[in-house]
Write a structure and sequence with these properties.
single chain; about 500 residues; mainly alpha; two-stranded antiparallel ribbon; 19 helices; elongated
Length: about 500
């Protein structure tokens, strides 16, 4: 059996001189730009979505109507802006402290680092004779046969021995010596590793860390009553999320989940200042996009992963609040640990909210029309899952608190819904019995509208973009072709 071969005559490493790295955007230092870019990205993208909101552009791709934003949310826009600005102040302060722990960036060492990777590649070639011998191949004989026609391949087979690639070096004291040089493919592979593979792996590690950090802390905020009512319930005052409410949190929660999580991920991944600049900015853009309230078919962030605006919107509804915890990039923890929404088609629930919100707005405006949506397409929906929910919720106000907690019937979807209702019930400040009673009555009204539409066999006079079918089509089509509304898996 061949022995392990380690090339002893490795090519020398080049000398280098370090120089300060110029600012990406002069005269702003990169560390300051790292603090500013996420804030600029947050408000720029948020204002774009706010602009199309008020101009009523792309209304066919809305997840919720303007009436829902007005009537279902329990916090004013100015309160949201205040708390977001506060979180960004804290975020900037933590980022400034983090920047103080980072060394200044220099350039001039790139060729040296690439040569280090090329050396590692050369050393790994020392495994070739041993690996070939394990497969019963004579490495020395194979290398001799390849030497004339394929000298480079012969050198790799021989364990990184390239006798033809020797250069003459003259030392400072006048001595001449033969030194090995790198093969072209070694330099090419080393550059690919240095410029592309390592940065991609760093970003992948940072994304995995942030997703893991946020999933388990976010889930803990929902599983623990004190954590939820003290901190996280503030974020869920937004039953209808919108873009600039993405970072509307309790200051402590914002620091723990967002600022600290991203900072630790940056350190764990060993990123440079500029890598961190793009990582923090991309994370911010993704978070805003997940709360934008639109399922835009040409939005790349809606299609890169299944964790998008439709997916996260389910989590903001009272019936899905204990599902879909994953944020901000991927959904693998939800799927692995069984917390992804499994209740199937939620069109009736969304239509109920649209109808009721529009009725409230029209009542305020003394208007005659109560809604612009049609329920004809919902006639074939299975209404059975809502029977017990309506009956239980409408009786809540007359029962002692101990009897108000919903009993979870068999089935995962029912257990998810029951757990979500229980959390809303326990939230004395922003939830409570009234929320469940109101939603149950709305659900009942939506069902009655479906039945009346079916009996009369009427055809909606409104466009598909404002109908229930339009809601189903525009959201489903943006979720990679998955079945069910909002990209959720349907029950078998």
């Amino acid at each position: 059996m061949a022995n392990l071969t380690v090339p002893c005559n490795l090519p020398p490493l080049p000398s280098y001189a370090l120089h300060p790295l110029p600012s990406l955007v002069a005269p702003i230092p990169d560390k300051l730009l790292t603090l500013l870019l996420p804030i600029v990205a947050y408000w720029s993208l948020s204002m774009f979505f706010h602009w199309i909101d008020i101009r009523n552009y792309f209304s066919r791709y809305r997840l919720h109507t303007p009436a829902e934003v007005l009537k279902r949310n329990h916090v004013s826009r100015w309160e949201v802006i205040r708390d977001v600005v506060l979180q960004q102040v804290i975020q900037t302060g933590v980022g400034w402290l983090l920047g103080m722990t980072e060394p200044d960036d220099f350039f001039g060492k790139e060729e040296y680092d690439i040569a280090v990777w090329a050396r590692r590649i050369r050393m790994l070639q020392g495994l070739s004779p041993w690996l070939l011998s394990v497969m019963g191949v004579d490495a020395d004989g194979l290398a001799k046969n390849l030497a004339i026609s394929y000298p480079t391949l012969a050198g790799a087979v021989a364990g990184g021995q390239y006798p033809s690639l020797m250069d003459i070096s003259i030392t400072l004291d006048g001595y001449r010596s033969n030194v090995s040089t790198f093969v072209r493919w070694e330099i090419f592979a080393a550059k690919a590793i240095y410029w592309y593979i390592v940065p991609v792996l760093q970003f992948a590690l940072a994304i995995f860390f942030v997703d893991t950090w946020q999933y388990f802390l976010h889930r803990a905020m929902h599983m623990n009553k004190w954590l939820y009512t003290t901190f996280h319930s503030r974020h869920h005052r937004l039953y209808v999320p919108y873009a600039f409410g993405a970072l509307y949190n309790h200051p402590f929660e914002g620091f723990l989940l967002d600022t600290l999580g991203a900072s630790v991920a940056f350190k764990v991944a060993g990123m440079s200042t500029r890598q961190g600049m793009w990582f923090f900015t991309c994370s911010t853009i993704k978070t805003v996009d997940d709360h934008c309230g639109y399922a835009l078919p040409w939005d790349p962030l809606q299609h890169l992963t299944s964790n998008n605006a439709g997916y996260h919107d389910v989590h903001h509804q009272s019936w899905g609040i204990k599902t879909n915890f994953s944020q901000p990039f991927f959904t693998f923890w939800d799927r692995m640990l069984g917390t992804v929404w499994t209740g199937g088609d939620v069109s009736v629930r969304y239509e109920r909210a649209r109808v009721t919100a529009q009725r409230k707005v029209d009542k305020d405006n003394a208007a005659l029309n109560i809604t612009q949506s049609s329920n004809v397409e919902n006639a074939k929906n299975d209404l059975e899952p809502y029977q017990n929910e309506i009956q239980n919720a409408t009786l809540l106000h007359s029962l002692p608190y101990g009897l108000q907690k919903p009993v979870a019937p068999p089935g995962k979807a029912e257990q998810q819904a029951a757990g979500s209702r229980e959390q809303v019930l326990e939230d004395d400040r922003d939830g409570g019995v009234n929320i469940l009673v109101e939603e149950a009555l709305e659900e009942k009204e939506a069902r009655n509208m479906v039945r009346r539409s079916q009996r009369r066999k009427t055809t909606s006079s409104f466009s598909q973009s404002d109908s229930l079918k339009g809601l189903r089509d525009r959201v489903t089509s943006s979720m990679h072709g998955r079945t069910g509304v909002l990209g959720m898996e349907s029950n078998p």
